[in-house]
Amino acid sequence: MKRVVVALLALVLLAAPLGVESQPPAKMFRIGILAQFGPNAPESARLWEGLIQGLRELGYVEGRNLVVEGRYAEGKYDRLPALAVELVRLPVDVIVTPAPPASETARRATSTIPIVLTNHPDPVGSGLATSLGRPGGNVTGLYSLAPELLGKQMQLLKEAVPMRSRVAVLTNPTNPFHARSVKELDVAARSLGFGLQVLEARAPGDLADAFAAMTSELMGTFIITDPMFFTERARIAELALKHRLPTMTAQRAYVAAGGLMAYGSDVRDQFRRAATYVDRILKGARPGDLPIEQPTKFELVINLKTAKALGLTIPPTVLARADEVIE
């Protein structure tokens, strides 16, 4: 009997390593990121950390079953096409992009590799998707509701800076999304009883002249989301303060750089939610069948240090609604 037990134990010990070795290794997925800015800047880092957090929550861990291939233009947008080609040639399983022009560049580089948007202002209008409900093609993800939120932004600015009758809008005429935004702002301004002053800046060198054309009697200045404006956000905040103009934007980054207020989708949450699209695609879903989603979380950010420098007292009713106050 003892010999039988010993023989069985020997068989178990011999079989155990064979069982472990026979298990297939975890599949290694390769995710590409094509973006204007990488994780070097604090505001960009917090967004990309949201994506990595979302992937981790779904079981994807770098080095174990995930490789992240980041390609960042760092504000030099003419580099994006070559970076997109690099990702396509690797190749990667999915490409994640935040917003124009990276999203459109990725789509021009490939019609087969799935592309996930994190925060695009107008996927249908840009031609990336046939419709929000059924995108078709190889692009899906999340959009920012940017034009639809302009009325709410206008209302918040009026509450924070009352008793003024005009508002300026800083636009970049080379950005195809700005024409629609200006129309939305004009409708919102008229409904609230004040006028609109539209000023253009095609390049960083135009910003000083645009702000010089504004007057301190304006209720404030809307900074429409734009890659060039994002790059120059600290300069924009400096010019606004110099001309004593409150600013309203859709992104927290502008307020962190010294702007007055921002109201829009919680972009970090958008990046985290984009991970669910990546997960579904890696498990076999077709991007064209996945509806593009709108934001579910919004944030109001106010810079009290800037308000003080402008001589403004933000009403308690507005402060009470803020998700973040920078002091």
Structural write-up:
With 327 residues, the protein is of the alpha/beta class. The chain has 2 domains: 29-144 and 266-297, Response regulator (Rossmann fold, 3-Layer(aba) Sandwich); 147-265 and 299-326, 3-Layer(aba) Sandwich (Rossmann fold), CATH 3.40.50. Helices cover 41% and strands 19% of the residues. It has 13 helices and 12 strands. The protein has helices at 2-22, 42-57, 80-89, 102-109, 150-160, 178-192, 207-212, 227-231, 233-242, 252-256, 267-282, 304-310, 316-319; strands spanning 29-35, 66-72, 94-97, 115-120, 139-143, 166-171, 195-200, 221-223, 247-249, 261-265, 298-303, 324-326. The strands form 2 sheets. It has a 7-stranded mixed beta sheet with strand order 7-6-8-9-10-11-12, sandwiched between helices. A 5-stranded parallel beta sheet has the order 2-1-3-4-5, with helices on both faces. Helix 10 links the parallel strand 9 and strand 10 (261-265). The radius of gyration is 24 Å and the shape is elongated. Residues 1-23 have low confidence and may be disordered.
